[in-house]
Amino acid sequence: MTQFDLTDEQREIQDLARRFTADRITPFAAEWDEKHIFPRDTIREAAELGFAAIYVSEESGGIALGRLEAALIMEAMAYGCPSTSAFISIHNMASWMIDRFGDADVKGRYLPDLVTMERMASYCLTEPGSGSDAAALKTRAVLDGDHYIVSGSKQFISGGGENEVYVTMVRTGEDGPKGISCLVIDKDTPGVSFGANERKLGWHSQPTRQVMFDQVRVPVANRLGAEGEGFRIAMMGLDGGRLNIGACSLGGAQRCLDESVAYVKDRRQFGKAIAEFQNTQFTLADMATELEAARALLYLAAAKVTDNAPDKTRFAAMAKRLATDTGSSVVDRALQLHGGYGYLMDYPIERFWRDLRVHSILEGTNQVMRMIVGRDLLKD
């Protein structure tokens, strides 16, 4: 990346994702939302472009791009459907964890199918009793010879019940973050079960269920990293996940801004297009300005995560907070500009309003993002 612009290669990647979105996501997203369709075939088509293994190494079959390129892809796909783009982001995070922290054996057993999305992966951290306080998780893994015996449950798991692979944070030691390890658990392992599909405000194109473990025997060979490294692995994954979910907010908000510009030119009140009213122009100007500011911060944070900069976690938190709050605010104003029509499912705005709302909660709530930034600023 140059100081203030994308490189030619990055623009080519962005254009590829935009073309895929225009052809394979945007025309169908409203139906996926209304009928709660999980578009598995479309998601696998994205994998054919490398979008299931964006920052997985080339040695493992990925396309080994940086976090900025990943953000460009997620932003482009979210222009059509934030829910589907976010699902692909989560799969990427799980695949990257296996590639980054797994040994040759576990990578060989899982990554070939994850790269093609023949199998899909979920990330399992949150529990019914530990959301923002992730280090308090209770799911227990007890060593028994060359296996762990896992019992507990995970909450709000994207892809739960549909995906075949679950990258799961478990407690193998003491209370707190140092007692957490990371295991890869297969869907068909005896003792793995799933709750009912959650009835959600948005994100209707992907299933969300509780994942339950009842005396599940998981080979020690399925551990990523050493015992006690799970929390560090989880947090490193979240740096990238926060960038991607922020990018999904940017893509969805950009779509709603574009829809609003077209709508206000056509909609007439008091004898003229509402685009001619100064209030409309000021609203659009603020939406566009705030969106560009959030985008600039997110791209900067993505470059820092790629470069493993010392302040990468703070910048990822800042960017996630700003991008998701801004995205929701822009979409809310887009709905207002559409008036009563914005509230109807005949227009895409209400779907984006619903889908983007959860982005301020997942991958760490925006209140937790403020905690991360504040603590980093005040540390010695």
Would you mind describing this structure in some detail?
With 380 residues, the protein is an alpha+beta fold. Helices cover 51% and strands 15% of the residues. It contains eleven helices and ten strands. The chain has helices at residues 8-24, 29-35, 40-48, 67-78, 82-101, 104-116, 230-266, 278-306, 312-338, 349-357, 366-378, and strands at residues 121-124, 140-144, 147-158, 165-171, 180-186, 192-194, 208-219, 223-224, 268-269, 272-273. The strands form three sheets. It has a four-stranded mixed β-sheet. A four-stranded antiparallel β-sheet has the order 2-3-7-6, with no helix packed on it. It has a two-stranded antiparallel sheet with strand order 9-10. A hairpin with a 2-residue loop joins strand 9 (268-269) and strand 10. Helix 4 (67-78) packs antiparallel against helix 5, helix 7 runs parallel beside helix 9 (312-338) and helix 9 runs antiparallel to helix 11. The longest helix is centred in the middle third of the chain and has 37 residues, at 230-266. The two termini are 32 Å apart. The mean pLDDT is 97.
